[in-house]
């Protein structure tokens, strides 16, 4: 049909493909929509209803395919991130086992980092290494603040995500105690939670800027 050909051509022209690829894809689009149109028409619907149905179903299928590809990509990236994150977390946690003399600071907020800053001013090489490790671990928590809202699909609610961040970071500290591969400290919990929150803020900022750009394109 003329309308289907026109819609297929319009859809293909939006894609960044060569002329040959566009022609091939256009034929596939037309075949798919024509099949949907004919099947719907055989069920007793009018030409207009069948055309609308074919285009709507085609759009739904296209959007679903796009979402599936995006979801697969995100899961792949998240899997790689989790592996790297686990290696960093376990490595830094194990290197902290030797700091037994700092146990008195474990339940006092900011006391451990206050001690590290004091030691850093005295140019203690061991303390500098610890700070580097903690900064690396802090940075590794930022992507978690982006991935958790995406995976749970609850990115609109700050409170829901805050709860998830708390459960996650607190769970890691408890796991360290149970498995005995590191020392749990309240400061670790706070700094890791801060990393997740920074990641969430960045995620919301990306969404805001994306919507703003999309609105500009629509109005242009």
TrEMBL record:
**InterPro entries documented for this protein:** VanZ-like (IPR006976)
Can you give the residue ranges of the VanZ-like domain? 74-206
Q: Where are the transmembrane segments?
A: 72-92, 135-153, 165-183, 189-209
Keyword list, A-Z: Membrane, Transmembrane, Transmembrane helix
A Pfam family cross-referenced in the UniProt record is: VanZ
Q: Does the keyword Transmembrane helix apply?
A: yes
Q: Which residues form a coiled coil?
A: none
- Can you say what this protein is called? VanZ family protein
> Which source organism?
Clostridium gallinarum
Q: What is the lineage of its organism?
A: Bacteria, Bacillati, Bacillota, Clostridia, Eubacteriales
């Amino acid at each position: 049909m003329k309308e289907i050909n026109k819609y297929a051509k319009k859809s293909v022209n939006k894609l960044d493909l060569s002329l040959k690829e566009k022609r091939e894809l256009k034929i596939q689009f037309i075949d798919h929509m024509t099949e949907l149109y004919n099947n719907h028409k055989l069920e007793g619907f009018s030409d207009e209803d069948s055309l609308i149905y074919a285009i709507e179903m085609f759009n739904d299928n296209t959007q679903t395919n796009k979402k599936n590809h995006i979801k697969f990509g995100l899961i792949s990236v998240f899997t790689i991130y989790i592996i790297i994150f686990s290696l960093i977390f376990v490595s830094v946690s194990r290197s902290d086992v030797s700091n037994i003399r700092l146990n008195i600071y474990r339940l006092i907020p900011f006391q451990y980092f206050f001690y590290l800053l004091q030691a850093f001013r005295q140019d203690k090489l061991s303390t500098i290494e610890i700070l580097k490790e903690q900064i690396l671990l802090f940075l590794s928590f930022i992507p978690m603040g982006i991935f958790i809202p995406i995976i749970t699909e609850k990115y609109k609610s700050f409170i829901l995500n805050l709860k998830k961040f708390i459960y996650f970071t607190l769970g890691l500290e408890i796991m360290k105690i149970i498995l005995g591969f590191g020392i749990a400290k309240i400061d670790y919990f706070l700094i890791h939670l801060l990393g997740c929150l920074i990641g969430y803020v960045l995620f919301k900022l990306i969404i805001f800027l994306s919507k703003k750009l999309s609105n500009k394109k629509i109005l242009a």
